[in-house]
Amino acid sequence: MLYFILLIVLPILGIYTQSFKLGWTPFWESISDPLAWKAVLLTLKLAIIATVINIFLGTMIGWVLIRYRFPGRRLLNSLVDLPFALPTAVGGLMILLLLGPNSLVGAFTSGFGFDIVFHEPAIVVAMVFVTFPFVIRAVQPLLEEMDKSEEEAAYTLGASKSHTFFKVIFPSMLPGISSGAMLAFSRALAEFGAVVLVAGNIPGKTLIASVYIFGEIESDNPQGAAAVSVMLLTLSFLILWAVNLVQTRRLGK
């Protein structure tokens, strides 16, 4: 309880207290600032795109790691957790070196008039990188616990592989996909270290909420930083509540 209060409850209360310390009017002025709203809306849009990508990639990779045996499987399974262990700033630097204007990929895309780094695609790549493990690790236990007799019964009755997947296997995977996607979305909303190196931080174009908060602190405006933080924090609370609800229903079944 002491750990929970000191490291979780008090910091959260501090953010809400700081945001409303000067009253409702300054708080409303802070969150209604056009740059703040653009930063939050851009963050939501790119986090949704990154989450959709992770849903497809995570589901496929989780399926392959559980259902197939191949050389390097254990190595691939251990590399899935690399974004958790790697400092996010290092991840941002890796993306910068891989996709920057001086890299082979960056030079190739620049030839077609399409730049990746310091534009929205680089932010999406950074968000996908840091949230990569969530869907995979949420899907894998469900596939391991799945009763294969239902799948075999579907094949015995003449169902095709695609029909069996969508009618028998996918419904069992859906709770894990949903909870993993929500956790990935929540994590993408708050990403800073990987994004700040590749975003360009152009107000209204590539400035996301976490970098905006950092800029407000640097500009000696803790009220504005706390107000935007409250928006993201409240949204994260709602997402975590939804994840808990999904997991509780799954256990109830």
TrEMBL record:
Q: Where are the transmembrane segments?
A: 43-66, 78-101, 121-139, 192-214, 226-246
Q: How does it sit in the membrane?
A: Multi-pass membrane protein
Domain ABC transmembrane type-1: start-end pairs: 40-243
Compartments annotated for it: namely: Cell membrane; Membrane
Stored SUPFAM superfamilies: MetI-like (SSF161098)
Stored InterPro entries: CysT_permease (IPR011865), MetI-like (IPR000515), MetI-like_sf (IPR035906), ModB_ABC (IPR011867), Sulph_transpt2 (IPR005667)
Which UniProt keywords are listed? Cell membrane, Membrane, Molybdenum, Sulfate transport, Transmembrane, Transmembrane helix, Transport
Major localisation: membrane
How this chain assembles, per its entry, is:
The complex is composed of two ATP-binding proteins (CysA), two transmembrane proteins (CysT and CysW) and a solute-binding protein (CysP).
Protein family according to the UniProt entry: Belongs to the binding-protein-dependent transport system permease family. CysTW subfamily.
Question: What is this protein's function?
Answer: Part of the binding-protein-dependent transport system for molybdenum; probably responsible for the translocation of the substrate across the membrane. Part of the ABC transporter complex CysAWTP (TC 3.A.1.6.1) involved in sulfate/thiosulfate import. Probably responsible for the translocation of the substrate across the membrane.
Question: What is the protein named?
Answer: Molybdenum transport system permease
